[in-house]
Amino acid sequence: MRSTIILISGPSGSGKSTLSEALAETLSESLGPDCINIIHEDNYYRDQNDKPFEERCEQNYDHPSAFEHELLLTQLQQLQSGQSVDMPVYDFCQHTRSDQVKTLKPSKIIIVEGILLLSQAKLRDFSDLNIYVDAPIDICLIRRLERDIHQRGRDMASVLSQYQATVRPMAEAFILPSRQHADVVLSGTSKPGRSLALLRDHLATVVGTQAPS
C-alpha cells in the first residue's frame, strides 16, 4: 500500500489544524477511520533535554532549524513503505520532547500540518498534494493568543513578545514565501465545508475520492 501524503502549511493561527481535522473527518467517511493519520510538525521540534529550561525559553521556534525535518521525512518514508513508526511527542510547557512517543501505523492517507512544511523542498517534493492556508495577520494573532493561553498555559505578555521577536519575522522570511510552492491556496477564514469543496478535484486526483460540495 502506497500512502498518499498531503501537506497543509501556512502561518501560525491561519486555520491549518481546523482544515486538517475537517479533511480527515471527510476522508474517513468514505475510506474508514483507520485509513487516515494526522501528523503535526510541532512534534518534530528538536529534543532540548540537554539544555536548561531558561535557555529553552529563549529559543527561536519559528526558524526551520528548530525542527528535525529530517526525522519527519524519514518517518513518512517508513510509513509509506508499510512500517510503523514511533512519532515523538512535544511538551510545550517544558519546551522539549516528552518521554512519550505515539506509535503510528501505515495508512492510506497521511495528512501533515505545520508552519514550515512547504519551505522544505524534500518534504514538498515527497508530498502528493501541497496546500497553503492563508489568513489576515490580525486573525492569525488573535487565534494564536487564544490557543497559547488556553491550551499551552502561556500568558499574554510572553505570547506577544514571542510574536514580535520571532513569529512574525520568521513568517515573513520563510512561511509567506512558501505559498508559491502550494498546489492550492485556501482561505483560513472560510468555513471548512467551503475549503473542502474547493479541494474536491485535487482530492479526486491524488486520493481517488471527492469532498462534498
From TrEMBL:
Alphabetic keyword roster: ATP-binding, Cytoplasm, Kinase, Nucleotide-binding, Transferase
Pathway per the UniProt entry: Pyrimidine metabolism; UMP biosynthesis via salvage pathway; UMP from uridine: step 1/1; Pyrimidine metabolism; CTP biosynthesis via salvage pathway; CTP from cytidine: step 1/3
Stretches assigned to the Phosphoribulokinase/uridine kinase domain: 5-187
Compartmental location: Cytoplasm
Catalytic activity entry: uridine + ATP = UMP + ADP + H(+); cytidine + ATP = CMP + ADP + H(+)
One term of GO molecular function: uridine kinase activity
CDD domains the UniProt entry points to: UMPK
Listed InterPro entries: P-loop_NTPase, PRK/URK, Uridine_kinase-like
Enzyme Commission (EC) number: 2.7.1.48
Annotated GO biological process: CTP salvage; UMP salvage
Chief subcellular location: cytoplasm
Enzyme class at the top of the EC tree: transferase
A GO CC annotation given for this chain: cytoplasm
Family from the record: Belongs to the uridine kinase family.
Annotated protein name in UniProt: Uridine kinase
Record organism: Pseudoteredinibacter isoporae
